[in-house]
Amino acid sequence: MPNQILNTKLIRIALAxxxxxxxxxxxxxxxxxxxxQLGYSELAATFSRDKALAIxxxxxxxxxxxxxxxxxxxxxxxxxxxxxxxxxSKTLAEFIANYNQPDTAYLGQLNESSxxxxxxxxxxxxxxxKPSAFALELRQLIGQGIATGYNLVTTSWPLFEADRHIxxxxxxxxxxxxxxxxxxxxxxxxxxGFSRKTSAFLYRDDWGTLSxxxxxxxxxxxxxxxxxxxxxxxxxxAADKTKFVATIDRxxxxxxxxxxxxxxxxxxxxxxxxxxxxxxxxxxxxxAVSNGKETxxxxxxxNQAPALVKAIQQLNPTxxxxxxxxxxxxxxxxxxxxxxx
Length: 341
What we know:
Layout: H1 14-24, H2 31-38, H3 41-46, H4 49-55, H5 66-77, H6 90-98, E1 106-109, H7 115-125, H8 133-143, E2 149-153, E3 165-170, H9 173-185, E4 191-202, E5 214-218, E6 221-234, H10 240-251, E7 271-274, E8 281-290, E9 295-300, H11 305-315, E10 320-329, H12 330-336
Helix pairs in contact: 2-5, 4-5, 7-9
């Protein structure tokens, strides 16, 4: 189910650390400044104009001075997020602030064959988080009929560029491995990240027997809590999102009960989202609920979000509630409207 987070050591302290980082970080005012803050000035100085132009993909690169062009190429080489002028670039400031901190969420490149073993290791070695007081209180969202589900984020997210970032949620790690190999086989390239979450959602009677035990919330409502994960993809271009959508629809989305030719554990409603509008996505609202240390994420249709925000605030006025626009795949959008396919 849902998303948003800064790349800090653990998401449960992400919001606090992010505030400190951004409060104490001086934004770079030019590319050379950013390169100096990251410690790559000497490397940038070795670049010729031709080499810098070969690396840079900025639309205004011809207008840059040679030192700025070389610095811009260096930033792109090391994966720093830059788009046009970087003055007051919050995203780049976050990148600089977190650059030398361990990024436990980033796994590697999609075309690395060792990625499949690495992702299974991440899944098996990171133990599921026991419910905290915050998690127990969140159950009231479902118990009181305020929401039908939410995600409690339990590990950090990678700091990927929003325009090129897709977050894909699932529960079966074999599905994740097959999905990575599928995308590689389709010629897609991407940086890959991995984060864990606890998904909580209202159990529906027509689902039958589940492997998870059900939590009785009273009033005929039963809760499912499952340890799940998000795969994060940062594609070379925003246009790659369209090819990702087509690949999921063809090989990872169930349309009939006994459908063949799909990867393992394909869902009726795959769940993935984009931080920006893109072809194959529909508008939704993501609501981050935090007690200052932990964060839960909920999704709603835009016209339903104001009432949901108000209900959450009434449940616990001490929680911060932050709605933001997000875009979800069409099948999950139908789920938000009450459909099951």
